[in-house]
Amino acid sequence: MKTALRWTARAAAAVLLAIVLFVVVCAAYVLAGWFGHARVSGSIFGLPVQAPVTIARDDRGIPHITAANDHDLIFAQGYVEGSDRLFQMDLLRRVMLGELAAIFGPAALEHDERERDVPVRAIAQTQWEHLDPQSRASFIAFSDGVNAAMQREPLPVEFRILAYRPRPWTPQDSLAVAMATVLDLTDDWNDIAPRDAAYRRGGERLYDRLFPFTDPCYNAPVLGGLAHIAAGPRCKRSALSVLQSMSDRRIPVGSNEWAAGGAQTLDGHALLANDPHLGLHMPGVWYLVDLRSPDLHVAGATLPGSPGVVLGHNERVAWAATNGTVTSLSAYLPPKHLDPNGWQAETFAVRFRPDVTAPYYRTRDLFGARTKGGRFVLVRWDAYAHPDSPVTTFTQLSRAGSVGDALKALARYPGPTQNFALADSAGNVAYALAGDIPDDPVRARWFHPSTDLVRRYAAIPFARLPKIAPSRNAIVWTANNKMYAAGTAVPSPQFANPYRAYRIAQLLRARRAYDVAYFAAMQLDVLSLPERELARDAEIPWDGLMRGDSTTATIVQRLRVRLTAGKPGRLPAVLNNPGAIRPAARSARVAAIPWRDAGADPVEHALAALHINILNGVTLPGNGDAFTVHMQSPGASQSFRAVWDAGNWDAGGIIIPQGESGEPGSGHYTDQAAAWIAGRLWPLPFSSAAVARATQHTLTLLPK
Known about the structure:
Blueprint (H helix, E strand, L loop, with lengths): L1 H34 L6 E6 L5 E5 L5 E4 L3 H15 L1 H12 L3 H4 L4 H7 L4 H11 L2 H20 L4 H6 L8 H14 L4 H22 L28 H8 L7 E7 L10 E9 L7 E7 L2 E7 L8 E4 L2 E7 L6 E3 L10 E6 L7 E6 L5 E4 L5 E5 L1 H4 L5 H8 L4 H8 L7 E7 L4 E6 L32 E5 L3 E4 L20 H11 L6 H7 L6 H9 L13 H14 L16 H8 L6 H4 L33 E2 L2 E3 L2 E5 L7 E3 L17 H6 L9 H7 L2 E7 L1
Parallel strand pairs: 1-23, 3-6
Antiparallel strand pairs: 2-3, 2-23, 4-5, 4-18, 5-20, 5-21, 6-7, 7-8, 8-9, 9-15, 10-14, 11-12, 13-14, 15-16, 16-17, 19-20, 21-22
């Protein structure tokens, strides 16, 4: 018995030791990824470059890449993005291709099945086949750079936690991840579904009440100019009208932009400001980069996984964009009998489970999709029927020599439809709406009957879309609002509320001449025009500022949320009971806390869904909301703030909410958060002298 007990004790001790060793080894493996980070100095030999490439990292860890040719430049860009953002890139690739279940198991299968409604893999492949040889070469060089980083740099901690390695990167993967923003900015069948329900329940009368085209009291169309912009709304209306305009339940994914020609600025240079509003997460949406070769010099923000620069400037031209909020596609109720040859099977890999197969309907110019409510519809969308990548247009913008050149590039831009503001070193600014918009009379307000499937709606030619010609005297602005005054109508189911645009126009009208500091201050403005009206009608004394130290801001926001609450596609209850406003205002006053706390926005990593919170970013205190120029709303915010001084590029700048790197041990994971919260505009060195002064580390890539 004693011998048996001793043996059992020794066995238990051995098992315990094995468990401890296993935990220690696993912890060491994960911690190696946590504290490890990609190289930023020294030399790396044996790479497929034709000449040495220099990667200078500035005080934020932003790479300034100098190469002897374009191939090596884009290879190096792939290398740094693969070094800094590899897990984010792989996760986004899996999101877009519907492959999350292969890593996260059965819990992610429903997401994957929904994502495959849009055949992103097939779209990316067709886009690849349509690319010109020069663009193909860039995508190949970028992919080679990413794969070189995979082989030579430490594996990011997320792969260690989830116990898998990413597969090699391909050019089609870059095209697929670029589709993420396309889908985010497209008004799709899920957006149409509640509008369709309202139309079928109450016709156009109910539809117009639930989904007002715009708020006429605050219309601020760029084509109308600044002359009609006043200090307040241009009409008086009841609190009910204000609430009806504020009951838009769409996620506030949009943007702000404005620009002023050289004749309107203090230094005679054109100025341009841009702050796109997108989802808030770790790492952030954008990756900042500066690219230089003998034929190209461009800097700004790109989407991780994509070559080039999406929004930024070269040596002569800067460009900015906001979502057009226009009709993008046509959706139809299906006929009783679908073409049996249109069905095809998709297979899903599921970790820890057998593969799963599901049917999808796709023909040459239509695909089937299910709304979140489970309704099956057919979709006709030019991005599916005639896939062309928008990356090509951004490559052309990067090489534009003037605003005129940029407009020529935008004439061929496929979408998603954007309002583009342009500025050049000659002092000119311009505006253009660009992208494919079907000339569909239904305007995506509801689902077409199946009998309309025989009709085709051609895209509106670029020449007919709203624009403002290049001029040193021009002042332009957009914020996802209705951009035309009269005579140039553009199909849209519902533009974004015009409050941000109106406030931007007010601030532009308030000055005779502008500088970088004034444009940067405008991006921090927190005056909420409609909520100020609501407070007035609810007899709440308030200046309308959604400042962090304001408890009244919290009270008014609570009041708005309570009064506009309700099911999508149904009128807020208060519109049938006006007497509820003041009692609701009294209850909203209870235990109010400062808006910095009430409106605080956590910045979570994707693994927070698994209760792994150590990778989360710095929480942003409440400051502004969905109706202010400084947009910050639950789960979304300004994704960068940029102001460019055209021709004096070192004088402007750009900042992102958290940090450049996706690696916690790099020192640049959240190092911009404090400056972001403080409202700082951080210069992005562009001239050789400015880059040299800012350089903290230098890495050289050397050929074989």
